[in-house]
Please model this.
Amino acid sequence: MHFTAPLKSDSIKIMLLGSGELGKEVAIEAQRLGIEVIAVDRYPNAPAHQVAHEAHVINMQNKDEVLDLIRRVKPDYILPEIEAISIEALFDAEKEGFHVIPNAEAVNKTMNRKNIRKFAAEELGLKTSAYRFVASFEELEKAAEEVGFPCVIKPVMSSSGHGQSVAKTPEDLKESWEIAKEARGDASELIVEEFVRFDYEITLLTARNEHGTVFCEPIGHEQKDGDYIFSWQPAYMSSEAKAKAQEIAKKVTDGLGGRGIFGVELFVKGDEVYFSEVSPRPHDTGMVTLITQSQSEFALHLRAVLGLPLDFAFFTPGASAAYKAKNDSVTPIIHVDEKAFATDSFVRVFGKPESHEGRRMAVLLTMAASESEALKKAKERIGFFDDSAKVTKVVEEKCSENEESCVIKRVIKFIFG
Ligand SMILES: Nc1ncnc2c1ncn2[C@@H]1O[C@H](COP(=O)(O)OP(=O)(O)OP(=O)(O)O)[C@@H](O)[C@H]1O
Ligand SMILES: NCC(=O)N[C@@H]1O[C@H](COP(=O)([O-])[O-])[C@@H](O)[C@H]1O
Ligand SMILES: [Mg+2]
Model:
């Protein structure tokens, strides 16, 4: 492999279509290898714009705007970073000889729940929840009845929980129908999924190129309103479930083909593993790899894209916690507790130019001897107190200076760990 300098006639160029927090880390990894970075998004000063050689603001859902920019920039690799991109532009660019990561058809399949679900369940034969696709309220009522209650209703094109809801009874369906309209992508068709009562869910990061396929340790995560709030790695899995998870991830990533990292989302119930969905790009829950691995998911993605070896080491158990904005502001402020700067944790502030309620603005990363300890630290340091933490805090305040003599504290510790 030869490397070049950026901003030269022979530079190796990557174009990020989407420049959020995930793209920003890919851009930083590319900078480290002397790759020229062209960052594109729908709004100015997006996170990756701020660390790229060139920044562009276009309507990424507009075929002509995307194609025009690709033809002008002539990138060696086009890296879709979000789902809402004109797929026609990617197909055309590929026909013109541009290298889309992992490939335009894989992006097409994964950006639409109908395509990927049919591919995974019907072509590859993977286990999934029961599902139906609907385009009218009457169809929704019928499908929900068939799939059963509760059921999960999602627009076929949307991400980060937008437009999703769980209907517990037929009476909830009207509201679900309305919520689906909020989706950013295509809300004209919906998927109705059986609600899987899983024990836990994981993301299995899987990177592939000509050097082969590598799996990261499974990442456990907690979701709120369809968006991740905490993740940890490694997530404990029985060896049978882990083997099944890797088998599913291999099948689906081989089926999609091309170079890059994939976030394979799986639900686990006992030793049963259900395929849920897959992102052909780094995954938000995978930000934890910034602290746990020698090569983060972003570094692995770039290596896969460039055709480099995918070797890496798992360094330490760790966890991540998302800082979500509490209000709308054009001068956002992120409050970070000083404890986040302890030897065993750090923070990444994305630099999003505006906040709106619930928008992910930064991430806290922690390491520890075990993932549960790392998760506990992440929760404490981000100011998330579940009831047990609250009780412990109150008791701590009441304790005398001689900590060990505090009986209440020891009892509480015994109960809550
Ligand atoms: N059929 C289901 N049964 C039970 N829980 C589900 C089901 N589908 C989704 N969920 C829950 O909702 C979360 C979000 O769903 P999903 O991953 O399909 O949406 P998303 O909008 O693509 O999210 P993201 O973009 O963050 O991955 C899942 O991680 C899971 O916790
Ligand atoms: N689950 C997908 C995901 O996490 N995508 C990440 O969020 C950004 C959009 O953030 P925004 O909505 O705050 O602009 C995307 O650009 C990507 O980095
Ligand atoms: Mg998901």
Summary: Residues 387-417 have pLDDT under 50 and may be disordered. Residues 129, 152, 154, 158-161, 164, 193, 195-196, 201, 223, 226-228, 265, 276-277 surround adenosine-5'-triphosphate (ligand 1) (CB under 6 Å).
